[in-house]
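User: Show me a protein chain along with its predicted structure.
Assistant: Here is one chain, sequence first, then structure tokens.
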Amino acid sequence: AWFAAGAGSGERHGAAWGRAARVRALDWSFLGLGGDRMAAAGARRLAHIRETAVMGLTEVAGSLPRILRVRAALKRALELEKPQALVLIDAPDFNFALAKAAEPLGIPVIYYICPPVWAWRAGRLDFLKKYAARRALLFDFERRFYEERGVQADWVGHPILDELPPPMSRDEAKLA
């Protein structure tokens, strides 16, 4: 499977996915756009996220040629490698073009951590319905939002919850 995580938070989730696949002994190789965490989890990087992870209009404008080069290189690599699946993690402004490029190649897209279409830019839901074979959501209420609009999606929970300590009981909180 290929991964494309356009920023640090997505890269953390992609690394968790890679580690989980290894624990389950899935016969997957991971490659694509990621950072050091994904590399440590066993992914082979074609590009580093520091080349694409920018915020703010000025920074994006100055980085646009580099970002477009990285995306074009990933599209070419998709054509050459033809992976069994493309896992896109958040970063819709970067990843939607990859999803669109995967369609004529017959590469199914799993959109892990869909953009929050319930909060803004709801028109992206039509894109996700057309180009993503599977859609994974962080919050349970998102699933209802999708279902009410005729789009199937899976609630997978928020990966950050796996990193937090368990909540304290009331008795433990009183002692703290």
